[in-house]
Amino acid sequence: MNSLTWLKQKVNSQTSDLTVESADIRVIGDRRSGKTVYMASLAYWPNANPNSPVQTVTPIGDLLASQELIKYAQDVLEQGLELKGTPLKPNVVEVKDYGLQILLKDRFKLSKLGSPSVKLTVNCKDYGGEFFQDLIRKSNNSLLMDYLDDCIRSTGILFLVDGTAYAKDQEYANSLELFFAALDQADLQHKQRRIALSISKCELSQLWTGRHNPRVLMDSLFPKMMGKLETWQSRKLGFVDYFALSSFGTLGKEYPQPNTILKQRDRGGTTSVIKEPRKWRPFGLVSPIYWLCTGQRHKALDED
Asked: Looking at the DSSP assignment, which residues form a beta bridge with residue 156?
C-alpha cells in the first residue's frame, strides 16, 4: 500500500460524537534532538502498542506535508534509515506545518460515563535545529525574528531535548533565557502559553529508568535549563511540565534494551536508527500533546 492510499484511508475513518481539544504547536530543539523522527513516529501510529489509550493518529491538512511525514516514517520505522537534519528554511512560511488528529479510545477517557471521546487536533511546525542555536549567535538576525514572531502565534511549544546532551545544559539555559526575553518583547498580548519540555531518546538505559518521573530526570540532567523554565513559570508568564519519550522504544520487558543501533555519540547527543522495525513500541509520544491541548496530564499516556 502506498503512502497516499494509506493516508486517504485514515482520513476517511472519522468518528462522530467527539470532544475536540486543539492546539497550535511549535516543535523546537537543538539538532539531533529527534524532532522530525518524533513527528514521523506519531504519524505512523498503527504499529504502536495496541493497549495504548490512543486509537488513531490521522495526518490532516496539507496533503503534501502529510505524505512527506509518512514517507519519513516509512524510511525510519520500516527501512531503518537515518533522517537528515531539518534545514532552517529561508522563510518561515516554508516551514512544514504537520496537522494531526489524535483520537483516544472510549475506555481511556477521563470524563464521566456517557460523555464523548476526546479528539486532539494539533498543528505542529518543525523548526530546524539552527533556530535554537542562533538565539545566542545571531540574536538580531531578521529571519530569526520572523521565527520568533511565528512562535508568538502558537498556543504551545513542544521543546525536545536529547537526554544524552546534558553537557550542553548551560548553552540551553542561555538560549532559553534569550528565547523568553524575545517572546516577552514581541508578544504585545502577553498571553500565557504552555511549554512541554520533553526528554527524547529515553529508550537508552541511562534514561529509561527515569521515564516515569521526568521532572526528577530533568533536574538531574539539565538543572540550569530547568531553573530557567521554573523561573519563567513562577513569574506567571506561562506553564511548564516535563515529559519523557522514546520514538523507538525498547526490546524486551524484564531486561529491556534500546531498540536502536547507535550511529554517533558526542557532546551534542546521540544519533541512532531503529534496530527491529517490527518490534517498534514508542513511549510517551502523545502525552505532551495531550497536556498542550488540555492543560491536564493523562496518566495512561505516560505508561509503558
From this structure: 25, 194
